[in-house]
Design a protein that fits this description.
This protein is mainly α. Helices cover 76% and strands 0% of the residues. It has one domain. The protein is built from three helices and no strands. The longest helix is centred in the C-terminal third of the chain and has 29 residues.
Length: 96
């Protein structure tokens, strides 16, 4: 039996859930200023995934890397959702 697909699927669900929580909490505390962190982490993980010999490990690294890159888009969308009042905004933030 090959469980690689199930493992990658579980990692996908976990990375999406954690990514969502990071976006909501991060936007609340830091606004969109921290998007370069997602860019660096995402690019590093995608590049590392190219050099790993294991298909499972390469898939997991690539998946988390692209999830991190997608989080940049979601971070700016979250800013719009806060502006619409769907999520709370931090009142004392300087660069809203």
């Amino acid at each position: 039996m090959n469980f690689d697909g199930l493992i990658i699927g579980a990692v996908f669900i976990i990375s999406c859930g954690l990514g969502h929580m990071l976006i909501v909490k991060g936007e609340y505390h830091f606004s969109t200023r921290w998007w370069p962190l997602f860019l660096v982490i995402g690019l590093l993980l995608v590049v590392f995934s190219l050099y790993v010999n294991s298909t499972l490990q390469s898939g997991i690294l690539g998946l988390i890397g692209f999830t991190s890159l997608w989080s940049i888009y979601e971070l700016f969308k979250q800013k719009g959702r806060v502006a619409k009042g769907w999520f709370p905004s931090k009142q004392k933030r300087e660069d809203s």
